[in-house]
């Protein structure tokens, strides 16, 4: 049977994604997406942390179809609490199935391996039937596909036949093992294997041993625990085989005949990290919503990026890590028409970079098929998100040269469906030259039709570019009384102020403060 993958709308989309060689490393770094991924890898829920499939956040979807496919599953889990809880608990069951599979793969003893396979198949059959029940009322296409997958397996005549055979054999061997006791005589240093006729006799035997010798032994003999078998257990097992030839012969036959199901079992187990992806992100989004953060399903359209009360996921995680109140996060509205450009200016430490990252992270998460932290969000399905942030200087190379080389390198990827985010670019030379360089690239973006967000102190660019005859949106970070940063971003022209006075006041360097200090001396 073909593999089931509930991360992609089709097998063709999955293969296209697997073979795609897009490099998102710089974008993840600039937007702090790596911190978001680390958060899930460390674990909102520690029990599932090691199973979180980071690859689905390291590389976004290539098609809008796949992103919407994931969003539908995530949306259903967010709004159907019972389904979420059932699937959450079910992942623990799948972890147990995976453990059985790994134990089977590692075992070298013939009888143990045969019995482990029998246990594995029995668990697999029960688990796939259980998942079918859990997903029976699911509505999203992805979970309906998983339900159909389970139904196709459990409804097949072959599966039912093998399942009935396995159940019968498991019952017989369990009964054999249950009624085996070992009587220990420490004085004579002997161990007697007793095959009790009834289960109750085993308990009486164990009590007699404990009362007489103070020895406590297990009430049941196991073929698979502990691993490997001790010499004594080997002897016990041989006696059991000799006394129950038919049962163990049937076990050998079952193993030889039905190991073809191993590939199906392995493929089914590979669903575990996919379920963990959905429950982990859904749990995070639901928890943030319960704490008062806005959370919504992004809607894709070609009009442009429009969001209200938007916050960046990395900032939320930073607040959580530092135990800061989430209500202190300042959320902003976003407007960036498809193919449009905005210039965001304002004082340092005014929230400009945070705003740019919130925009970029929302677009990135939407491309991954994840809910975003906005009240409402509509945006294009950008084919790529290209970032150009200030980086550390390279020894022997000027910062300006490094910046030019870097933007020229990524310029080959610019197209009308690109989102390009620049943060304080081209600031390492004279202002006049920096403005000219910035306008050169803005012209290039404009001609290609990219959507561009540019954080810059060059507030005059909209007035200079094409003599002001352009559609560039001017944004400015807010400043309150005495230079207090409000972190609110609004559409207004830059005022040319450097806001240096509040910095000087902070360090006691205003004219008034200096004169006051001089008067004290």
Question: What do these coordinates show?
Answer:
This protein is an alpha/beta fold. Helices cover 54% and strands 13% of the residues. The protein contains 22 helices and twelve strands. The strands form three sheets. A six-stranded mixed beta sheet has the order 8-9-10-6-11-12, sandwiched between helices. A four-stranded mixed beta sheet has the order 3-7-4-5, covered by helices on one side. Strands 1-2 form a two-stranded antiparallel ribbon. The model has no long low-confidence stretch (mean pLDDT 87).
Strand order of the largest sheet: 8-9-10-6-11-12
Summarize the amount of helix as a percent range: 40-55%
Structural class: alpha/beta
N→C terminal distance: 89 Å
Number of helices: 22
Described by the principal axes of the CA atoms, the overall outline is elongated
Runs with pLDDT <50, length 5+? none
Number of strand segments = 12
User: What proportion of the residues form beta strands (DSSP E)?
Assistant: 5-15%
Summarize model confidence as the mean pLDDT. Answer: 87
Radius of gyration: 32 Å
Largest sheet: 6 strands, mixed
Structure summary:
By secondary structure, the chain is an alpha/beta fold. The protein has helices at residues 11-19, 25-31, 33-42, 46-49, 55-58, 64-79, 81-106, 110-134, 141-154, 157-178, 199-213, 231-243, 245-258, 262-269, 272-290, 313-321, 352-367, 399-410, 431-448, 461-464, 500-506, 511-520; strands at 180-185, 190-195, 299-300, 304-310, 332-337, 341-345, 376-379, 384-389, 418-423, 451-455, 473-479, 485-491. Strand 8 (384-389), helix 18 and strand 9 (418-423) form a beta-alpha-beta unit.
């Amino acid at each position: 049977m073909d593999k089931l993958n509930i991360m992609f709308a089709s097998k063709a989309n999955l293969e296209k994604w697997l073979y795609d060689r897009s490099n998102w490393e710089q974008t993840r770094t600039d937007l702090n997406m790596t911190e978001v991924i680390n958060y899930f890898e460390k674990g909102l829920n520690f029990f599932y942390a090691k199973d979180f499939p980071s690859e689905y956040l390291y590389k976004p979807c290539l098609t809008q179809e796949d992103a919407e496919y994931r969003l539908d599953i995530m949306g259903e889990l967010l709004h159907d609490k019972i389904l979420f809880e059932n699937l959450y608990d079910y992942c623990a069951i799948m972890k147990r199935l995976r453990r059985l599979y790994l134990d089977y793969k590692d075992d070298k003893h013939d009888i143990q391996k045969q019995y482990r396979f029998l246990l594995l198949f029995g668990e697999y059959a029960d688990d796939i039937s259980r998942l079918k029940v859990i997903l029976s009322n699911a509505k999203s296409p992805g979970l309906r596909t998983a339900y159909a997958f389970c139904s196709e397996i459990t409804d097949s005549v072959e599966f039912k036949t093998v399942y009935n055979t396995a159940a019968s054999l498991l019952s017989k061997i369990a009964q054999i093992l249950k009624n085996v006791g070992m009587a220990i005589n420490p004085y004579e240093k002997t161990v007697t294997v007793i095959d009790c006729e009834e289960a109750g006799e085993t308990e009486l035997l164990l009590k007699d041993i404990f009362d007489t010798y103070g020895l406590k032994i297990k009430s049941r003999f196991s073929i698979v625990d502990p691993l490997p078998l001790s010499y004594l257990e080997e002897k016990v097992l041989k006696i059991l085989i000799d006394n129950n030839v038919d049962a163990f012969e049937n076990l050998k036959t079952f193993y030889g005949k039905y190991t073809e199901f191993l590939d199906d079992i392995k493929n089914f187990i590979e669903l575990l990290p996919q379920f963990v992806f959905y429950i982990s992100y859904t749990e995070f989004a639901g928890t943030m919503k319960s704490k008062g953060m806005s959370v919504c399903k992004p809607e894709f359209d070609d009009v442009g990026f429009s969001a209200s009360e938007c916050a960046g996921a990395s900032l939320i995680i930073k607040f959580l890590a530092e135990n800061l109140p989430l209500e202190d996060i300042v959320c902003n509205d976003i407007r960036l028409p498809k193919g449009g450009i905005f210039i965001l200016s304002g004082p340092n430490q005014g929230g400009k970079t945070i705003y740019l990252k919130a925009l970029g992270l929302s677009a990135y998460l939407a491309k991954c098929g994840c809910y975003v932290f906005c009240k409402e969000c509509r945006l294009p399905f950008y084919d790529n998100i290209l970032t150009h942030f200030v980086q550390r200087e390279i020894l022997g190379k000027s910062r300006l040269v490094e910046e030019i080389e870097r933007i020229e390198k990524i310029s080959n990827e610019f197209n009308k469906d690109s989102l390009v985010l620049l943060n304080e670019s081209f600031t390492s030379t004279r202002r006049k030259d920096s403005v000219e360089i910035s306008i050169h690239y803005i012209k290039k973006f404009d001609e290609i039709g990219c959507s561009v967000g540019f954080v810059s102190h060059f507030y005059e660019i909209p007035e200079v570019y094409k003599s002001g005859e352009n559609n560039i949106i001017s944004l400015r970070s807010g400043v309150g009384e005495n230079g207090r940063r409000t972190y609110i971003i609004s559409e207004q022209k830059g005022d040319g102020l450097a806001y240096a006075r509040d910095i000087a006041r902070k360090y006691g360097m205003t004219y008034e403060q200096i004169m006051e200090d001089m008067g004290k001396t």
